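--- STAGE predict ---
source: upstream dedup step, 1 unique chain passed
mode: sequence only
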Amino acid sequence: MNPRKIGVLGLQGAAREHRDVLERLGQTPVDVRRPEHLFGVDALVIPGGESTTMSMLLESSGLFDPVAGLLADGAPAFGTCAGMILLASEVMDGRPDQRSFSSIDLRVRRNAFGRQLASFEADLEVEGLDTPFRAVFIRAPYVESVGDAVEVLASAQGPDGESHAVLCRAGQVMVSAFHPELTDDSRLHQLWLA
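--- STAGE serialize ---
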């Protein structure tokens, strides 16, 4: 795996944990808080956090349009939890003025697994992994529908009793409803980097 300069959106959320995983995998992570921090970045991680807060901070920092341009130019992206929401094409239960990057054709529902008290962990069968991945869900979204080009890599049972996609990929964009950076298992980051 060749080292790459990977931006990690550092406005809010679990940015440090993503940087730690990427460093362990031999990559060069950089904290992205201003537009100039995107210079020379090969790929972007959008961490978990609070999606409405992150979208407001993207606007106030002047980062929304430069990040949108980077993604539109085909830069690989990995979004976890709030990052999934920000990369999706449609967001349910978001603020009316909330913008997303529409980098992956998904309809995502915010906080679909419940509030903070409903956080949980689950072992997921993930396409491409030999053994289950222990996933940490915190105020997690889930996917209500996927576009034709989207591959569902893992699903989990929602509070409605139905199975919902929680890990998806389309081309170089991968999103998870959970927080892989909060575990010692770096296989999802490796899957994305591959």
